[in-house]
Design goal:
single chain, 83 residues, alpha+beta, Glutaredoxin, 4-stranded mixed sheet, 3 helices, 40% helix
């Protein structure tokens, strides 16, 4: 098995956010299926991130560009990662 590459997906969220938990489950499943890595960032650890994303969490980035917010569409994420 080859090691996973640098994370292509970043999930910005916070503890106790049910939409973040839903997004995480989808991201984990898609990344595991495709052999991709992801990283999760708690926006509450950074005031600038709190200001930037506020109530739009979860926010998902793919390859450094904003992909989704509030909800993650599994098919759309899978498509973005296989282009």
């Amino acid at each position: 098995m080859t090691p996973m590459s640098e994370p292509r997906v970043t999930l910005y969220g916070r503890e106790g956010c049910h939409l973040c938990e839903d997004a995480r489950a989808i991201i984990e499943r898609v990344c595991a299926d495709l052999g991709e890595a992801y990283v999760e960032v708690d926006i509450d650890s950074d005031e600038d991130l709190q200001d930037r994303f506020g109530e739009e969490i979860p926010v998902t980035f793919v390859d450094g560009r904003q992909h989704d917010f509030w909800r993650v569409d599994e098919d759309r994420l899978r498509s973005a990662l296989t282009r």
